[in-house]
Amino acid sequence: MFAKPTGVIVFAGLVLVTLTACKGGDKPTAAPATSASPATAPPTERVVGPLSPADAQALSTMNDRLRDYIDLHTKLERALPSLPEDATPQQIHKNQRAFEILVRNARATAKPGDIFTPEARPVIKRLLATVFGGPEGQQLKASIMDENPVGLTFSVNGRYPDTVPLSSVPPQVLQTLPKLSEDMEYRFIGDRLILLDTHAHVIADFIEDALPTK
Asked: Is 47 exposed, middle or buried (CB count within 10 Å of its CB: 0-12, 13-18, 19+)?
């Protein structure tokens, strides 16, 4: 499995922010710290490192932006009419499209870097390079690129392409990145890491060239 990087710094509290489900509007709580490698860390924990103080501050700022997004997401979702318990697929689809419009209108000026800030981007890319540079790196990358199209055009605050299957994201990658709420997911489209709002089906932000070439 993925070997523990030398000098891994367990970074809890500031970076390891657990964003709880936004439906309830609960405040984020910090995930417990771990010194285990990504391969052995429990799903509820994260290993992030090695991090300099500047790296830690960059990810902290990214998490602040993420919290702001979740706050907006929660506010907008609560404005939608409630679905009946026996909602039909058509009703669910209509509700999701209405939510998508609300989110996109509220973030009409959104641009790359609003959440994955310019300071956080190189840190995220370095963390990913650490994972993919490990003994299982090529296998992990191959699992992501399986049926993962390249060369697609999309935009921040745009709808996730309906014809593009969601890429798998190995646990080793998820355990290395800051944890998200259940409404948000990391996915890859080509070599770009995207932040997907799964309820609105909207791309909240993305990082170009996130997958290392080797």
From this structure: buried
